[in-house]
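Listing S7. Sequence submitted for prediction.
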Amino acid sequence: MYELRRVLVVGYPAAELLDIACVVSALQVANFLNRRGIYEVTLASPGGRPIHTGTGLTLQAQGSLERATGPLDTLVVSGGIGYVDAMEDKRLVAHVRRLGLESRRVASVCTGAGVLAAAGLLDGRRASTHWEHADFLARRFPAVDFDSGPIFVSDGRVCTSAGVTAALDLTLSFIEADVSPDLARSVSRQLVTYLQRPGNQAQMSMFTAPSARHSLVQDAVAHIAGNPAADLSTAALAARAGLSQRHLARLFLAELGMTPGRFVRRARGEAAAHLLTGTALTVETIAARCGFGSEEALRQAFRGLYGVSPSHYRATQSTAQSTAQ
């Protein structure tokens, strides 16, 4: 008889609705597309009580965390604005620890990493979490190597993701590993979501990062985004802004949290990523258009940003047949 993979998703007061929904919906779509069940998904909460999520909506739990038993295929702990109270709830943490030890794979979404850390399940491991909470959690749990950069991190049997919708990327990676890449891509198409971003892709994009307040930095950022093939050395940017290189660097650090050089590398890498998935231009042409001196320079920069080669990124991330532009 075919055995379903038992997945237990843990919610708690003020958990994030999307953290839960992204995981559950993706797994249920995989069940539907596969025509026979793959996953048996249960949402559990302390005492089996309804989960009053951080969005104000209420979810009905399907089971009690205290009564849940292993073995489990996957344990997933959601994040949300209630995560600090959750990781300080000794009973909740004890049951997460117990179930984690009885699971083939342990995972968290967003700030759910704090609950896993409190349970000791992340000690000595590298972990991802929401970029805004990484420093707090790193101070709270020095035995864990929190990284605010990647969308998700797989460290052995423990997997952690960045904030909210990164749960989709993490869950798609589970489906790919458990069944096949084809099924994972089919699920992403059904959910009309981006085709599996690599785990090492940065959480924060230059297109979504907080805006600079200083007008000179705003102007420099707009110039960089609109002219990736131009001379974007710190010296050239400083001369254009009428500032010293040191002053420009101070402004970038204060406003954007990175040096002009690092921002330029990210901007060029993201511009290349958009051309790779949106056009059929050759990698050599894209390298030239985005300010990289050579194809090899683009490859090296791309691996540093996304953890994969440009050709692999194009093969796995393109959502439609593109035409050269």
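Caption to Listing S7: primary sequence and predicted structure tokens for the chain studied. The longest strand covers residues 39-45. Confidence is low (pLDDT under 50) at residues 319-325.
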